[in-house]
Amino acid sequence: MKVLFVLTSHDKLGETGEKTGFWIEEFAAPYYLLKDNGISITLASPKGGQPPIDPKSTEPDFQTASTKRFNEDKETQETLSSTLKLETVNQADYDAVFYPGGHGPLWDLAEDKNSIALIEDFIKNNKPVAAVCHAPAIFKHTKNADGTPLVSGKKVTGFTNGEEEGVQLTDIVPFLVEDMLKSNGGIYSKGDDWASYAVEDGLLITGQNPASSELAAELLLKRLS
């Protein structure tokens, strides 16, 4: 089984002058869970090469068993430094796709034509699409074959308005994930802020926040096996 991971290439947190990128736990936890279960993983990003890691996600408060493992794993760090360019990947080569979050995807992957086409292609070919935390931003413009929003009538979750308020970025981000999913007709639900919560509906698997990334990967693994 082969899974494609798509990471953000965007490193600017709006006009704040601060850096963003992908959240390391949301990459490491699913990556190791799938890899340890024999899944072959390929990494891609819009620009290719090293995707930006959100510096906040490397702070001591946010370390987990998975992030500590990543910090000592030179092989995976090397793999991460040379992601494929998104425009070169084809869904035919993979069984599923997983999008880790972090704030970066709100700016690039939500609007990226290659990403939008790729997601629609996975769905068209009956393959699962998983996204965690801010990564459900990728469903902003994705459509079903009939032109309706991909998440319309589907159970979904993603970073909550309360969580965005908690990190004080409500006025910085280009849009709120929770609001966007609802306005696209998604049947949005959530657990407590910062608690592990993930939802599966057909081919769509979504996780609410960093703590949900492993659970989302477990749902994907179950689906693949």
TrEMBL record:
GO terms (BP aspect): methylglyoxal catabolic process to D-lactate via S-lactoyl-glutathione
Q: Per its UniProt record, what CDD domains does this chain match?
A: GATase1_Hsp31_like
Alphabetic keyword roster: Lyase, Stress response, Transferase
The record's region (Disordered) falls at 44-77
What GO cellular-component annotations does this UniProt entry give?
cytoplasm
Q: Where is the DJ-1/PfpI domain?
A: 26-215
Could you name the domain of life of the organism this protein comes from? Bacteria
Gene Ontology molecular functions: glyoxalase III activity; transferase activity
Q: Which family does it belong to?
A: Belongs to the peptidase C56 family. HSP31-like subfamily.
- Record PANTHER family: GLUTATHIONE-INDEPENDENT GLYOXALASE HSP31-RELATED (PTHR48094:SF11), PROTEIN/NUCLEIC ACID DEGLYCASE DJ-1-RELATED (PTHR48094)
Q: What is this protein called?
A: Dimethylallyltransferase
Which species is this UniProt entry from?
Cyclobacterium qasimii
